């Protein structure tokens, strides 16, 4: 009986509970399938701090070497450090992490050489099909010559590359609180920030995949409460929070106030446009603030709107030659980083921008944060399609309102917009609302929620 991998092979990665949904035996088959689908002669593998990660990574390596591929193991790393290794070494890569999921989960994020994404339409479906076949028919025949395994430390090179992309030489001294959430930020931050005029106050830097302090998901407000309190207590200039695999970075200002990832996208976009001569394409997904395309145009750039999800962003960046891309989930993508996402590089841009002037962060970001937003509101629904249809029916007939269905349903008026999209993995509808003022936002939000929740 072939294994059913439908529950663990997602749109962009493999993710599930270990060992209930997958284990080292399956990881070995994934390693062989990855080599077969990418036709790789050599690959690079990294892993996070979860208890199951080293064993799963080693099993994946066994599957890869069995089919003749040479393996470079870079050990403990952040996901963007794995992308760096894939880009720098020109090798397909696999990262063992479940990002911000609870401790019992693990997963694999895979990429082709140069950090090009592997998703459902770019190899992941083929990998799944091979693994399912091999669980029924037996493992593939071994290559005549097995591949080799070597170990390599890429942390210093990763840090040096990031530092080469942002000029931090002239910044003023800053006090920054960093909450690593017991994730991989505790491994990367000390090396990346070493030698800068920063007083770094570390929180939860101990690598612990059981997440004893809070979930390593800074987009959930309850997980940044400790950081907010510490920033205020320390009189710090800002706070940074990383997720479990440290590819996303969330920012709080000197008052402990959360800074919208859309404002960070706009700020970094302005800096990247200046760096690239005042022109270039910037990608933003359709739930980022109106302020993002406005700032991009004001700084000479061309904004391009995409669906939510890193495979769509990376695809559009490659197609358009974009210099930067941002999502409201605090993923930030850089042309100078193989079009891959790196929260650490975005953090360096924030430090450079803040340290290059005298005002507080709240004042600096205010020009990039122009509208009232609801944040993402999730509603559990029985029938996603029916609830979306109800929203469309009510708002579709209104004068001066436009609809588009690039990703879910986006409804736009002169003074507000909202987007409702279905979750790919749960019976949820996700609502984001933005308006020119708080009262208008609340009115539209409440009306839309009433329709969504029936």
UniProtKB/TrEMBL annotation:
Gene Ontology terms for molecular function: intramolecular phosphotransferase activity; metal ion binding
Family membership: Belongs to the phosphohexose mutase family.
GO BP term, pick one: carbohydrate metabolic process
Cofactor names: Mg(2+)
Record-linked PANTHER family: PHOSPHOMANNOMUTASE
Residue span(s) of domain Alpha-D-phosphohexomutase C-terminal: 376-449
One matching Pfam family: PGM_PMM_II
UniProt keyword Ion transport, yes or no: no
Upper classification of the organism: Bacteria, Bacillati, Actinomycetota, Actinomycetes, Kitasatosporales
Domain of life: Bacteria
NCBIfam families: PRK09542.1
Domain Alpha-D-phosphohexomutase alpha/beta/alpha, residue spans: 7-136, 156-256, 266-371
CDD domains in UniProt: PMM_PGM
Coiled-coil regions listed: none
Keyword line: Isomerase, Magnesium, Metal-binding, Phosphoprotein
Protein's UniProt keywords contain Secreted: no
Protein name (record): Phosphomannomutase
Span of the signal peptide: none
């Amino acid at each position: 009986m072939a294994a059913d991998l439908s529950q663990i092979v997602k749109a962009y990665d493999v993710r599930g509970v270990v060992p209930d949904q997958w284990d080292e035996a399956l990881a070995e088959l994934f390693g062989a399938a990855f080599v077969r689908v990418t036709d790789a002669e050599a690959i690079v593998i990294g892993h996070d701090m979860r208890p199951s990660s080293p064993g799963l990574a080693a099993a994946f390596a066994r599957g890869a070497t069995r089919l003749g591929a040479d393996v470079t193991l870079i050990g403990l790393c952040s996901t963007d450090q794995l992308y760096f290794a894939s880009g720098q070494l020109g090798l397909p890569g696999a990262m063992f992490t479940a990002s911000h999921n609870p401790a019992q989960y693990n997963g694999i994020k895979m990429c082709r050489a140069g950090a090009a994404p592997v998703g459902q339409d770019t190899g992941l479906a083929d990998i799944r099909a091979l693994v399912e076949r091999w669980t029924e028919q037996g493992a593939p025949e071994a290559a005549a010559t097995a591949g080799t395994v070597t170990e390599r430390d890429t942390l210093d090179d990763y840090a040096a590359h990031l530092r080469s992309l942002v000029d931090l030489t002239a910044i003023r001294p800053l006090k920054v609180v960093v909450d690593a959430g017991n994730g991989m930020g505790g491994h990367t931050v000390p090396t990346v920030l070493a030698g800068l005029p920063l007083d770094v106050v570390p929180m939860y830097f101990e690598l612990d995949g059981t997440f004893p302090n809070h979930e390593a998901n800074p987009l959930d407000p309850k997980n940044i409460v400790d950081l907010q309190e510490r920033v205020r207590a320390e009189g710090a200039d800002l706070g940074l929070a990383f997720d479990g695999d440290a590819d996303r970075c969330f920012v709080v200002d000197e008052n402990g106030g959360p800074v919208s990832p859309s404002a960070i996208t706009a700020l970094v976009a302005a800096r990247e446009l200046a760096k690239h001569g005042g022109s270039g394409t910037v990608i933003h997904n359709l739930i980022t603030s109106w302020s993002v395309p406005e700032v991009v145009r004001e700084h000479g750039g061309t904004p391009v709107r995409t669906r939510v999800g890193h495979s769509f962003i990376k695809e559009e960046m490659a197609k358009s030659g974009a210099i930067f891309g941002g999502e409201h989930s605090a993923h930030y993508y850089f042309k100078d980083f193989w079009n891959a996402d790196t929260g650490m590089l975005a953090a360096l841009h924030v430090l450079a921008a803040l340290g290059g002037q005298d005002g507080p962060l709240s004042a600096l970001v205010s020009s990039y944060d122009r509208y009232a937003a609801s944040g993402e509101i999730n509603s559990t629904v029985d029938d996603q399609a029916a609830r979306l249809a109800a929203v469309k029916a009510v708002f579709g007939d209104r004068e001066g309102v436009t609809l588009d269905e690039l990703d879910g349903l986006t409804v736009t008026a002169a003074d507000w917009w909202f987007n409702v999209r279905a979750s790919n993995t749960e019976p949820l509808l996700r609502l984001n609302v933005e308006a020119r003022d708080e009262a208008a936002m609340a009115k539209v939000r409440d009306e839309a929620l009433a329709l969504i929740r029936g």
